[in-house]
Automatic annotation (TrEMBL):
Residues 12-243 form the Nucleoside phosphorylase domain. Its EC number is 3.2.2.9. GO terms for molecular function: adenosylhomocysteine nucleosidase activity; methylthioadenosine nucleosidase activity. Pfam families: PNP_UDP_1. Keywords: Amino-acid biosynthesis, Glycosidase, Hydrolase, Methionine biosynthesis. PANTHER family: 5'-METHYLTHIOADENOSINE/S-ADENOSYLHOMOCYSTEINE NUCLEOSIDASE, 5'-METHYLTHIOADENOSINE_S-ADENOSYLHOMOCYSTEINE NUCLEOSIDASE. This is adenosylhomocysteine nucleosidase. It is an enzyme of class 3 (hydrolase). The lineage of its organism: Bacteria, Bacillati, Actinomycetota, Actinomycetes, Micrococcales.
Length: 246
């Protein structure tokens, strides 16, 4: 018998860490269960605010993110969801001018800053044979303006490019990232990989990242201190975007 949580998902929501999954599991209608473990990933069909979602806890990094999303797309299609939205949720380091800890950035474009095949005529950040950048789903970007928090909320909802690296970025690598990608608003370790898999499968994608740190030498401590708050804000915006475009 089909259960509510096994309905074809409107969206695949992917997080890297348990702390980033927690706000979604807290909202789940009914028990979320242990989920399906595939490699390092855990996949759960859940209902969030009445929305059927495939929640994916992938583990950290490009390979974990890409392999988990590939499995999730297969599972979504098996459940009858041929073209779900894909959203990456969780935390990131702030890079852009004016971006503050506690803000939320919805990526307008996604770039792998560790890709460098310029000797073959590709742009810095471009994986050979793939686009130079992966653009966010236009419907989700258009919905962001209506979701801005009240002026007194103490944090801002922003859009801008999100870049991704194999490394957790502190001051030295942040300087390199800003030099190569001066428009970047935030940096994480998964979004460009998720964007590439989404692009390859013809699925609309957006990454929604709470800014836990500012990619300084204090970033590791700041990230730990701010993860719960910024993951919660990311989850709020993710669910609002799914409602807005579904």
């Amino acid at each position: 018998m089909e259960t509510q949580s096994s309905r074809a998902p409107l969206a695949i929501v992917q997080v890297a860490m348990a702390d980033e999954a927690a706000p979604f599991l807290a909202r789940a209608e009914g028990p979320a269960g242990e989920g399906e473990r595939v490699g390092q990933a855990v996949l759960r069909h859940v209902v969030l605010d009445g929305l059927p979602v495939l929640l994916v806890h992938s583990g950290i990094g490009f390979v974990n993110a890409a392999s988990a999303l590939t499995t999730a797309i297969v599972r979504a299609r098996e459940a009858g969801g041929g073209h779900p939205l894909v959203l990456s949720a969780g935390t990131a380091g702030g890079l852009g001018a004016g971006v503050a800890a506690g803000d939320v950035v919805v990526g307008s474009a996604y770039i792998n800053i560790d890709a460098d095949a310029r000797v073959f005529g590709y742009r810095l950040g471009q994986v050979p044979g793939m686009p130079a950048v992966y653009d966010a789903d236009e419907r989700m970007l258009a919905a962001v303006a209506a979701l801005a928090p009240d002026a007194g909320a103490g944090w801002a909802l922003r859009t801008g490019p999100i870049v991704s690296s194999y490394s957790f970025v502190t001051a030295d690598r942040a300087a390199i990232a800003r030099a190569g990608f001066p428009d970047a608003a935030a940096v994480d370790m998964e979004s460009s990989a998720i964007a590439q898999v989404s692009y390859s499968n013809g699925l609309g994608f957006a990454s929604v990242r709470g800014i836990s740190d500012l990619a300084t030498d204090d970033a590791p401590t700041d990230h730990v201190d701010n993860t719960a708050l910024t993951a919660e804000r990311s989850a709020e915006i993710v669910l609002a975007l799914i409602r807005a475009v579904s």
